[in-house]
Specification:
Elements lengths: L2 H6 L23 H5 L3 E5 L6 H6 L6 E5 L5 E2 L2 E4 L11 E4 L6 H11 L3 E3 L11 H15 L2 E3 L5 E3 L17 E8 L2 H8 L7 E6 L8 H9 L6 E6 L5 H13 L4 E5 L4 H11 L6 H10 L3 E2 L3 H11 L9 E2 L6 H13 L3 E2 L15
Parallel strand pairs: 1-2, 1-5, 2-4, 5-6, 6-7, 9-10, 9-11, 11-12, 12-13, 14-15
Antiparallel strand pairs: 3-4, 8-10
């Protein structure tokens, strides 16, 4: 198993919630653009142990630099010994260090002026120190108004920008109109391999959702002019009112949301709790919320992939009629069954067409 896979899998207990006087229901999109498409990035903890991450932050034309106490370069990434040695603050800091030093690294970056962070680690690989480090990061970030993706996530990936992504980004990962917001790192990673079937405006692995959650990312992509459709993989909804707000924002922007949520069975609920500490609520209630906001809920990953492909196109069907060309009468009948079940009308071509559909050679 790769280090990227092991980092995406651990189960971190839920982090602390924002202070009681914080606007729990407010959407928090500040700092998200810099996480996904930074104009400059610093990788704290650049080393040969995370070469894939080192390579990914060098994607695109933006300035990238590593922080390493002794090396001046790691796999082509120029390095300086500390954040304070940088001539200007980067837009994004990726904190790829352990629990013993990560809080100090965040403070150094904040002092420099950084307000957007990716924290890929602090899963079970961080041991007993992990939960305390997560709580400390939350307190520091909230005190300074900083945006954090993670902890315990794969990161963020954009086809034409530096990407704070732990895994391999294939050459087929191309720009396009599909945005992915996933609380599962492995599901997010699977989408990167779907190109060139369709392109992506961004893929985000939310992880432990320290102070930016799926609702914030849905709202961000709803306002993104490069995005036409949003794919959402959920284990839990941490802020129900904010989530409903985000769905309204997406609907008002005419951005379809395709959602796959786990947790219909008791076994799945236990697995989600073990994986990310997520408490999964009533599936029926959640489905009702999705329907009321026009969200397309799917039952499995192949259905999600297909629907995202349909809605990624510039032209979309506006009516309820469909047509099909098939050489099988049984297939036509099957289409009619499914069409009627879903409230669609399967139109039939008249026996005498005004002109042939094709000409024989």
């Amino acid at each position: 198993m790769s280090s990227a896979q092991s980092a995406a899998r651990p189960a971190t207990p839920p982090g602390p919630q924002p202070p009681t006087d914080a606007p729990l229901d407010a959407l928090r999109t500040t700092g998200l653009r810099a996480i996904l498409r930074p104009r400059s990035v610093a990788l704290v903890g650049a080393s040969r142990r995370n070469l894939q991450l080192v390579a990914n932050v060098q994607r695109g034309a933006a300035e990238a630099v590593g922080i390493h106490p002794s090396n001046s370069e790691v796999a082509g990434l120029p390095c300086v010994p500390s954040l304070s040695a940088l001539p200007a603050p980067p837009e994004l800091a990726v904190l790829a260090v352990g629990p013993a030093t990560i809080a100090a690294s965040m403070r150094d970056a904040l002092t420099l002026g950084v307000r957007s962070f990716v924290v890929p680690g602090l899963g079970v690989e961080s041991g007993a120190e992990g939960p305390a480090a997560v709580r400390e990061l939350h307190r520091i970030a909230e005190d300074h108004g900083a945006a954090v993706l993670g902890p315990n996530c794969m990161g963020s990936a954009s086809p034409d920008s530096p990407s704070a992504w732990l895994g391999t980004i294939p050459a087929s990962f191309l720009p396009g109109p599909v945005a992915i917001v996933s609380q599962s790192g492995s599901i997010a990673d699977a989408f990167l391999a779907l190109g060139p079937r369709y392109g992506f405006s961004g893929v985000v692995s939310c992880g432990g959702e320290l102070n930016r959650d799926a609702a914030d990312w849905v709202a961000h992509f709803a306002a993104d002019p490069e995005t036409r459709v949003i794919g959402l993989f959920l284990e839990t909804v941490r802020r129900p009112h904010a989530f409903r707000q985000a769905l309204r924002v997406a609907a008002e922007a005419c951005k379809p949301v395709v959602c796959l949520k786990i947790g219909r069975s008791e076994q799945a609920r236990r697995a989600a709790l073990a994986h990310t500490g997520a408490i999964v609520g009533s599936h029926a209630a959640f489905s009702a919320v999705l329907r009321s906001h026009g969200v397309l809920q799917v039952d499995d990953l192949p259905e999600m992939i297909e629907l995202l492909g349909v809605f990624s196109t510039a032209r979309r069907p506006t009516g309820s009629r469909i047509g099909a060309v098939t050489e099988s009468g049984a297939e036509a009948a099957l289409l009619g069954d499914h069409a009627e079940h879903n409230g669609l009308s399967a139109s039939h071509r008249p026996s005498r067409s005004p002109r042939p559909l094709c000409r024989r050679a």
